[in-house]
Amino acid sequence: MRDALSIFLIDDDKDLLRATKQTLELAGFKVSAFSVASEALGALNADFAGAVVSDIRMPQIDGLQLFDRVRKEDEDLPVILVTGHGDIPMAVKAIQDGAYDFITKPFATERLVQAVKRALEKRGLVLENRALRRAADQARDDLPLIGQTPTMERLRRTLRQIADTEVDVLVTGETGSGKEVVASLLHRWSRRASGNFVALNCGALPETVIESELFGHEPGAFTGAQKKRVGRIEHASGGTLFLDEIESMPPSTQVHMLRVLEMREVTPLGTNEVRPVDLRVVAAAKVDLGDPEQRGDFREDLYYRLNVVTISIPPLRERRDDIPLLFGHFAERAASRFKREVPAISSAVQRHLQGHAWPGNVRELSHFAERFVLGVEQLPASAPPSAPETGEVLPLPERLDRYEASIIREALDANGGDVRRTIAELGIPRKTFYDKLQRHGIVRSQFAASKSGQI
Ligand SMILES: Nc1ncnc2c1ncn2[C@@H]1O[C@H](COP(=O)(O)OP(=O)(O)OP(=O)(O)O)[C@@H](O)[C@H]1O
Ligand SMILES: [Mg+2]
């Protein structure tokens, strides 16, 4: 720790300053010397990684005033005062006020070195504790559910009410709207919080893998199953099982899952053993499973089993009043992560915040905030279609046309030019999509390139 920490040494007697600096450096400390207190104060801040050693008697700002200002900046920053004989009562008072130590002139080198060493040790601990506390705070706020619109207030209330019940929950919402945030809050606000929160993305795993992931298996249950594997369901026992993208669960797995939900027991592959599980299931879907068209081959009985309580998270465009709050939060977070200042918000940024459709919802907004803080955001220069800057008012069909083009551009932009995702988001057939690109003169590859600003 000693390496990382340093001493600010202040004395108006330049010879003494040089000599003391040398003494401390010989003892292995890093020292910055100042002959004027104001200079030292200018270089200090609340997280200063070190301690201050200052003479008391100095013109302009003296050692006691310096101590006073340092204490206001950070009361845990150790200040050691160096005093002449006549100043001892003053120094004693300073100690009572929280100064770390005082040393009377002339002093033995060892006395100073020991005092500095202890002060730095103490400082090291304080800074370490602060860092830990900050990390803990951040971890706790890692998944906050920000929002002050009535919808979000209501959502939070509902979550509080049901978090600690045993009921299974279905969470629906568009991509990036906060389904995982909600699922994790349901876990953290419940008595199950001490158990595991086990997430499984049903859309990301091939059909052959998903069953053994969920139910576990014994050695030799199938080709390649060499070792016994405890399934995610058992792993979540006592905690919460989060089944993400449940709409993509293969039909055969759905049958098995239904049984788990009904019986609260699991049979690992390759066994006849039935093991009880104490489970709370939270499932998330991007589509409305209640609608037979959107449900596709998702089993109706499983839907009804999951649908005891459904929480629908509205898309961001339906809670626009939360955008500034969320944007501010993400910008602050990005600024501290990238060690930058939050830049001033230009009117183009403001227009974008208010006018953009945010098809990628809160995730898209958080990426936008990060690019904004990094200064790599390039907003399209074009004005929003509904507000032609020339003042001309276009006929309705033309306005609709422009609006459609801007929606397509936004979707392409949000999806980094990925056609499959864009089409899924727009909910139109592939052919229609390409027809529209052509009609509006939209070049898809440009959007893939614009993603380079993304982090
Ligand atoms: N209300 C909110 N307050 C703060 N952060 C939020 C909020 N909603 C979402 N986020 C953040 O936005 C990002 C996307 O949220 P999340 O992963 O929960 O979305 P999702 O609905 O699960 O998306 P997908 O369907 O794409 O998996 C995360 O980083 C999350 O922390
Ligand atoms: Mg998710």
UniProtKB/TrEMBL annotation:
PROSITE patterns given in the database record: RESPONSE_REGULATORY, SIGMA54_INTERACT_1, SIGMA54_INTERACT_2, SIGMA54_INTERACT_3, SIGMA54_INTERACT_4
Name listed for the protein in its UniProt record: C4-dicarboxylate transport transcriptional regulatory protein DctD
Record's keyword annotation contains Nucleotide-binding: yes
Organism classification: Bacteria, Pseudomonadati, Pseudomonadota, Alphaproteobacteria, Hyphomicrobiales
Domain Response regulatory residue range list: 6-120
Keywords of this entry: Activator, ATP-binding, DNA-binding, Nucleotide-binding, Phosphoprotein, Plasmid, Transcription, Transcription regulation, Two-component regulatory system
Database matches in SUPFAM superfamilies: CheY-like, Homeodomain-like, P-loop containing nucleoside triphosphate hydrolases
Statement: the UniProt record of this protein carries the keyword ATP-binding: yes
Domain Sigma-54 factor interaction per the UniProt entry, residue ranges: 145-374
GO-annotated molecular function: ATP binding; sequence-specific DNA binding
